[in-house]
Amino acid sequence: MKLIRLNKVVFFFLLQIISVFSLTAQSKDELEQQAYDLLNEEEYQAAYSAFDALVVKYPKELDYKQKLGICCLKYTDKKDRAIEVFSSLKESTKDILYDYYLGISYQSNYKFTEAIKYLENYQSVVKKQSKNDENNFYDAATLAIQNCKNGIDLVEKKVIADITNIGAPINTDESEYVPCITTDESVMFYTYRGKKSLGGKQNAKLESDEKEGKYLEDVYVSYHQKDGTWSEPKSVMSINTNGNDAAISISADGKTIFSFKSTDKNAGDIYVSELNGQEFSKPIALNSNINSPNYWEGSCSISADGTLLYFASERPGGLGGRDIWVSKKINGEWGPATNLGAGINTPLDDDAPYIHPDGITLFFSSKGHQSIGGYDIMFTVKKENNWLPPKSMGLPLNTTEDDRYYVINSDGSTGYFSSNRAGGIGKQDIYKVTPGILGDKPIIALLKGVVYGNDKPISAKIEVLKIVQKENIGPFISNAETGKYLMPLSPGAIYRIKVSAQDFEAIEEDMDFENLNAYVEQNKDFYLYNSNKTPSDTIKTVNTNTTTPTTNTTVAVNTNTSNSNDSSPCGGNSSLPDFTPLKGKSLNDINVYQQLLSIAGNYCSTGLVFKVQVAAYRQPKNYNYSHIIDLGKVESNIYPDGITRFTQLEFTTIKDAEVHRQKAINKGQKDAWIVGFVNGKRYSLEELIMLDFLGKSIN
């Protein structure tokens, strides 16, 4: 039998026809009960189909048509039909209530001027004094009018941005929301609710209930792959239970994740888990300064230095609804929370804070401020220790639906958020936006790399001190399995970095970001040794600018080389390596350079030395090397091409020369590279590779 392949559009069209036949085959009472149940359960898409079938069969039943209109407003893909439904009701009944619904319908479809006309007409008839009537929407109309005025203003200032649904495999036909990314955008945790939820459908007592139960929230994780796609998401089993477990935030370095848990007896609290190797620990509730008794706390964000926690709460003492609060860590514990005040919070709901690693840029979602309806994404910047008035991220990022949980990567180029806007794949989807921020980009230094102990990745403590301010940051911990760490540092300070681990000698190094004026990303590997491994060479660091808009690019390196055969007279390995894999390749490629250091980092030979070249000028008087003079004598030589080249010290191996090159870079000498000399004649490393170093005659 020949199979017929249907395209997606035809498939869903046939499903809709089947659904309509199924609904119309039911009795009136059965269909009515199903429709109202679906509406009460907020299953708006299914409720829309049910009430649409009722309206077709019983067109004189006005309540069916009214509920159909409400479903149109809630089921965002049908919100344009809401205008048609409520216009028909208004014409047939002259009920002023439908002026309100028409106003909301026009607002939802961005027809703000028409919306204001109907909403104001509704208010002129329905007096505020009778607002205690459950069918009186006077205050709701007031808010909607303000939303519309905000919308008119934002339409004129429409932002140029590229907004895309990130699609499969993360987004499905169910609910995905609250994206939580590491600051380098390599990992995304998020909240999922649907058929894959642990425990299946459950009732309020967390008992299995396939008929009336609901799917609860779980935490999922996906990894950003080299080709730009996201990996197949996986459930985070160490966090998920049969109850509500939602991802709400992750630290910039990806080592700490915050989750939300709620039960039938608890409105919801914030929990924390720590990464150990590849697994997160079981969640532990934060203390009572964060989780207040009997009140909801459900979103948060931790500062990059780990000292401040911004979170949303419904506790008393706020300005109304949900407010954003902040707590400072004191002696390892979260201290009393402080409300961020009227500059940030409004009488309406303010939720979903996200503090950027720069420490001064705060995003949040609000029903107040310049919202055009529901939650809109706002941002503010701290200057002179005060938050500036929040601004809307504008159209088209914000819609008349709920747009929430905004996060951006470290350089501000990309943002992620979740929304129930029209055109999505499921009930809620995760979206990507570029650029990620309006106005000036964040200024931070993002350090990342690997900590090695005796040339193997280890877990180490990285303590950071702002030298002048005498302010401690962290500590940060490298991953126990991979040795990787991620550490954002703010501008305006000189940092002293101390790396330590049990049984290894600690190392310290200063890094100057006092005058940093643009985003910079640096790869920096740390090498620790115990006394049995290398008695004299305990400091080996690698400093690489892989993204530095304001400086020249240096090569990323990894001096993880073998120390075998160190008994040769020159102090290294005199066995000639095989340079075949490197020939014809550029050492500006990070992987090629790392391969060179791995293959020949310890190679040495009589008559061969390596020097660190720090400058080359046709007019050498332009070069001032006072910033590196404490590292050793700087020599200058004029070559036949008329260029004066400056070098500093000489070494018998590339590995030792590399250690010195990194010291020069850390002193601010960004242009520093290694050159070889054979019996006094200068060669680039690429030339030596092509000649197999001393394996061929060099003349």
Which helices and strands appear, and what pairs or packs with what?
Layout: H1 8-24, H2 28-40, H3 44-57, H4 62-74, H5 79-93, H6 97-108, H7 112-125, H8 138-156, E1 162-165, E2 175-181, E3 187-193, E4 217-223, E5 234-235, E6 244-250, E7 256-263, E8 266-276, E9 279-280, E10 284-285, E11 297-302, E12 308-313, E13 323-330, E14 333-334, E15 338-339, E16 350-355, E17 361-366, E18 376-383, E19 386-387, E20 391-392, E21 403-408, E22 415-419, E23 429-434, E24 445-453, E25 456-457, E26 461-466, E27 471-477, E28 484-489, E29 494-500, E30 507-512, E31 520-523, E32 526-528, E33 540-541, E34 544-547, H9 590-600, E35 608-617, E36 634-638, E37 644-651, H10 654-666, E38 673-678, E39 681-684, H11 685-690
Parallel strand pairs: 24-31, 24-32
Antiparallel strand pairs: 1-23, 2-3, 3-4, 4-5, 6-7, 7-8, 8-9, 8-10, 11-12, 12-13, 13-14, 13-15, 16-17, 17-18, 18-19, 18-20, 21-22, 22-23, 24-25, 24-28, 26-27, 26-29, 29-30, 31-34, 32-33, 35-37, 35-38, 36-37, 38-39
Helix pairs in contact: 1-3, 2-3, 3-4, 4-5, 5-6, 6-7, 6-8, 7-8
